[in-house]
Design brief:
The structure holds 2 protein chains of 2 kinds. Chain A is α/β, with parallel strands linked by helices. Helix content of chain A is about 30%, strand content about 15%. In chain A, strands 13-12-25-24-23-14-15 form a 7-stranded mixed β-sheet, sandwiched between helices. In chain A, a hairpin with a 3-residue loop joins strand 21 (about 595-600) and strand 22 (about 600-605). In chain B, helix 3 (about 40-50) packs across helix 4 (about 60-75). Chain B is globular and about 35 Å long. Chain B starts with a helix and ends with a helix. The chains are: A alpha/beta, B mainly alpha. The interface between A and B is medium-sized, with 33 and 22 residues.
């Protein structure tokens, strides 16, 4: 069943003209005789819209501050002279406004006449036909003639800039309303656009009058959305025409979880438009969610189930029944031969909550063991461990909107402008309002270059020294008396606090003592600690630069300690906020993907917990934790782990020490991969089950602020089944009955078994739009801010965070530290974004190196560089960059052939085995050819692609 | 059980032990509890078997923790 759901149609489909004002004080006025009371500071234009009165407008939009340039929204105000623009006129007590008079009509008509005198009259063939505010306004004011003619000077021959792959810029249609320029500034915060020239010569230009692609434009689409004409227009609309219906759904890229309207023609997706009613994004988007959806209909999609006896044989296309039957038989045979614990599965942070819940249920109930894990193992598992230990709940504490009340924003090991772009825009808005920014990162990230931002500090620490840094920050807080004693006394365990206090105030934790270790000057650490601790609200945001270390869990606890010590928890504007990488990292963790925890972080060893699940699932649950992903690999190589079901994850590309992973995968007797493409892992598979994209299924994702958002099906799955249906079929084939007819029934079961989800249902999600868990009897509408009164464990627990340096150290042979990360246009392993035009921004992974390191090695920009670590070698092209500090090099792993993970080691976090992606000792030298691994990769890839090609040919023949 | 797998387990338990602090008996208990709570049945069995064979590469704290784990599992 496809969805046609468009909630709160009136509230969010109407443009109210100017942004909302939040004043508690209300002002009463009358507009066209209608009485209305609105918050102080509201514009007359907005007040009229709230009263249901439409005033014509062109340059105003409710996501931009009023500008007052078009004058179309002029009104008459009793007792005032002239015709003030209603967008820039704030309401006043007792004001009497008239919006329609003969004089106003004439004025508006004259304005429109001037606009149209320099505008092409090609409405019938214009791509915005039917979706054009200029056209609407011409109609609204009753424009009937243009007395000026079209012979005078005009802009009708201005050339179109089609350089951006997703939208075109046709200045001949531009009315210079500045909405695009203001959207780029106010909504996105990039300031890539400007109005160049004066008077009649005014025009919109990108960058230094470059084309869009060459400018600093990040292709977020805010300008396209803001444009009232077809000047800035999606190419998909130019090609396909205006969509006819839309469905509100949730983006499947990063952990921000933006709401979008999927605008459709039948089952064809024409464009994705950020949804104003989305609680995470409030109508903003980035280049991935807004434009990079073409992968869903890419020719590489796996369209039918396939099986093969060995990975050295071509694939055979089979029916769903045969594929599921084959997989089930192999799994059963493996267990018969090697024992119950010889098989397992991996859930995906890209799939829905319902799908993830079902995979772990399949493993625990049908496989009969707890060998379930998820890709969160390799990103945020330390967050789960660290926050649960200290604060009692494995989740971030705030809403995204909370940042608008932060006075100091401390960003540690995260790169929001690239990895969480929509939230970064909100952060930048707060920085422009005056909040102080502290960035702790080995690299100089782009957030530090926020245009018109206020004070910022960069603590450029050495990779691997996070805990030393956070300890020194906490030391300053304690030593300089910056603690929030009242908070600590009322909210935290006294004994643990005293022990921590004794530890942290030791001289060895001072910034001076640790300066040599972290590389951050002590004075900077002191200044940063004061900026965080002594302002009203200090908020911490962190990412994988915190978790993906041998002391990832310790660092998370160090962050929680710092927040508790300064009382920066339990209200808006503060908090500890893990920025989750993938769309459903939070959800996959919540849904019991980890081997030791049932859904809702309930430990498998607890008999009371097991009993509740056993009653509903009608099966015995193993009381011992299962294997984690790296343990599965080790056991596979040892020959005791023989079969694996992987849903929507590409462990062969994303997990560290690729050669180790490859040898584990080749050791398996049966690898079942469910994915939308033949990803790197699928090349080692025996069963390939076609996955469905987020556009092809129903479900929910939970974003980084614990917000459960609905995912709605807008087109049919290419191979006929949503992912949860496939898991259900596999369970049934294994003899464990599952009979869900819709994901809402799976959510009902989740609510029944998970204490923090008891109030969640699809009906409530439709009603509220989204829900932040916990949602239960205590918090029936969810919980935007956590820990307001107490912690789930009662009192907060200060954990002692001794700094233990990683074993991965530089030496003469491997003198540089490699750290890895992401860029804006590509997403994770790139399976989706590489199959879109986003590759125009980033078509290969490069190695960034500081000029002095490059010079020392005789390396120039664009050279091929061999990068060798203790475990492997690869070759990447060189990019010389001053964002790096000397001694540190950086790359991304969006392209499989780059082999970035061939060099990362199998060192991991002590508590969770989260891999230490961020610290690898390497040497870099100029080379002329690809590494051995890359050559082998290419051959293996060619062979596996050929095996897939042979299927295609065979089925094509069968069709004839 | 392969050497490689065992080496990895030894490395893991030693690393967990290295990240503890304070009084030794309590630290050992924390490590034992960690293993009990997060390690799979087969991994616990392997590390206990390794201890029984001498556990040469276990650090003193890790050794004490595995011993406690062994006793707890025998008792439980």
């Amino acid at each position: 069943m496809l969805n046609y759901f468009d909630p709160n149609k009136d509230a969010f489909s109407r443009d109210m003209g100017t942004p909302a004002r939040l004043s508690e004080k209300h002002i009463a006025l009358t507009i066209d005789g209608v009485e209305i009371s609105v918050p102080e500071g509201t514009s007359v234009l907005r007040a009229a819209a709230l009263a249901g009165i439409t005033i014509p407008k062109l340059c105003a939009s409710d996501n931009l501050e009023a500008f007052g340039s078009c004058r179309l929204c002029a009104v008459e105000v009793e007792g005032r002279r002239g015709y003030p623009a209603s967008c820039t006129t704030p309401v006043a007590e007792g004001m009497e406004v008239t919006t329609q008079t003969g004089k106003l009509a004439k004025l508006r008509r004259n304005i429109m006449e001037l606009y149209i005198s320099d505008h092409p009259l090609d409405c019938l063939t214009c791509p915005a036909n039917g979706d054009c505010e200029l056209q609407d306004m011409a109609g609204a004011v009753g424009l009937r003639q243009v007395r000026y003619g079209f012979d005078g000077a005009n802009h009708l021959d201005a050339e179109t800039d089609a350089s951006n792959p997703y939208f075109s810029f046709d200045p001949s249609k531009c009315i210079v309303c500045s909405r695009c320029v203001r959207a780029c500034e106010e909504v996105q915060g990039t300031f890539a656009l400007t109005i160049d020239g004066r008077g009649f010569d005014s025009k919109v230009v990108a960058g230094q009058a470059e084309n869009f692609m060459d400018s600093e434009c990040v292709s977020c689409g805010a300008c396209v959305q803001a444009c009232p004409t077809s000047t800035l227009m999606e190419k998909s609309v130019i090609e396909q025409g205006v969509p006819e219906h839309s469905v509100v759904t949730t983006c499947a890229y990063c952990g921000v979880g933006c709401s979008f309207k999927a605008e459709m023609k039948g089952d064809q997706l024409v464009r994705m438009v950020p949804y104003k009613g989305g609680d995470a994004n409030h109508g903003h988007s980035c280049v991935k969610g807004r434009f990079a959806f073409g992968y869903a209909t890419h020719k590489d999609r796996i369209k039918a189930p396939m099986i093969r006896e060995s990975i050295n044989a071509p694939w055979r296309e089979v029916s769903w029944e045969e594929a599921i039957g084959f997989a089930a038989r192999r799994l059963k045979d493996t267990q018969a031969k090697y024992g119950r614990e010889s098989i397992g599965g991996i859930t995906s942070s890209r799939c829905t909550n319902e799908e993830t819940f079902l995979v772990q249920k399949l493993i625990r109930a049908a496989f009969g063991n707890n060998n379930t894990d998820t890709c969160a193992r390799v990103c945020h598992s330390p967050t789960g461990f660290g926050l649960k230990t200290t604060l009692g709940e494995s989740a971030g504490t705030q809403t995204f909107d909370s940042v608008m009340k932060a006075d100091t924003i401390l960003v540690i090991g995260a790169n929001p402008t690239d990895a969480h772009p929509v939230f970064a825009s909100q952060m930048r808005r707060r920085l422009r309002q005056g909040a102080t920014l502290i960035v702790a990162d080995p690299r100089r990230i782009d957030l530090l270059k926020t245009p018109h931002g206020s004070k910022s500090m960069h603590l450029a620490l050495k990779p691997g020294t996070n805990v030393a840094l956070v300890n020194s920050l906490a030391h300053v807080v304690v030593a300089e008396g910056l603690e929030d004693k009242a908070f600590i006394e009322s909210r935290c365990e006294p004994e643990a606090y005293q022990a921590w206090r004794e530890f942290i105030k030791e001289e060895r934790n001072s910034p001076e003592a640790l300066e040599a270790e972290t590389g951050v000057p002590a004075a900077q650490v002191r200044e940063a600690a004061r900026a965080y601790a002594s302002v009203g609200n200090g908020a911490i945001y962190y990412g994988l630069g915190v978790t993906e270390h041998s002391q990832g869990s310790t660092m998370v606890m160090g962050i929680a300690n710092l927040a508790m010590a300064t009382g920066n928890l339990g209200r808006e504007g503060v908090g500890v906020n893990p920025l989750r990488g993938q769309n459903n990292v939070q959800g996959s963790c919540d849904m019991g993907s980890f081997p030791h925890e049932l859904p809702g972080y309930q430990h498998v060893a607890d008999p009371a917990v097991r009993e509740r699940f056993e009653t509903v699932w009608r099966v015995k649950i193993d009381d011992e934790p299962g294997l984690r992903i790296p343990n599965m690999f080790d056991a596979a190589i040892a020959g005791t782990f023989k079969a694996l079901y992987v849903q929507g994850e590409d462990i062969a590309q994303s997990d560290p020490n690729t050669q180790h992973v490859e040898s584990a995968l080749t050791s398996l007797d049966c690898l079942i991969v469910q994915d939308i493409f033949l990803n790197e892992t699928a090349k080692y598979a025996h069963v390939l089950l076609p996955g469905s994209t987020f556009l092809e299924k129903n479900g929910t994702f939970t974003n980084a602020e614990r917000r459960i958002n609905r995912v709605r099906k807008v087109m049919s799955p290419v191979a006929g089944k949503e992912d949860w249906e496939v898991t259900q079929d596999l369970a049934n084939a294994l003899g464990y009955p599952m009979n869900y007819s819709h994901p809402s029934e799976i959510m009902d079961e989740i609510a029944q078994l998970t204490p923090t989800f008891t109030g969640v249902s699809y009906a409530k999600l439709d009603e509220l739009g989204s829900i932040q868990w916990p949602c239960n009897d205590v918090y029936p509408n969810g919980t935007p801010t956590m820990h307001e009164v107490d912690f789930p464990i009662g009192k907060g627990h200060f954990a002692i965070t001794e700094y233990v340096a990683t074993e991965e150290r530089t030496n003469r042979r491997y003198p540089l530290l490699l750290t890895t990360g992401r860029i804006l246009s590509q997403y994770n392993v790139g399976a989706q974004t590489r199959r879109t035009e986003n590759s125009q921004w980033h078509h290969e992974d490069v190695l960034e190196i500081h000029p002095s390191d490059a010079e020392m090695r005789g390396i120039r920009e664009g050279d091929w560089l061999g990068i060798a670590s203790r475990v492997g070698q690869t070759v990447l092209r060189c990019k010389i960059s001053e964002r790096m500090q000397p001694g540190v090099v950086y790359t991304t792993f969006h392209h499989p052939g780059s082999g970035a993970n061939v060099i990362t080691t199998d060192n991991s976090d002590w508590a969770t085995n989260c891999p230490e992606y961020k610290v690898t000792a390497v040497q870099v030298e100029k080379v002329t050819r690809p590494s051995e691994w890359q050559k082998n990769f290419r051959h293996f890839d060619e062979r596996q692609q050929a095996y897939l090609g042979q299927v295609t040919e065979a089925s094509a023949i069968a069709f004839k | 059980m392969s050497d490689q797998q065992l080496q990895q387990l030894v490395k893991m338990v030693n690393q967990i032990a290295a990240n503890q602090h304070g009084e030794e008996a309590q630290a050992a208990q924390r490590v034992a509890t960690h293993l009990q709570k997060f390690w799979a049945r087969s991994m616990k069995a392997q590390i206990i078997a390794y201890l029984d064979e001498g556990g040469a590469e276990l650090t003193p704290l890790a050794r004490e923790a595995v011993l406690r784990l062994k006793h707890e599992r025998q008792a439980g």
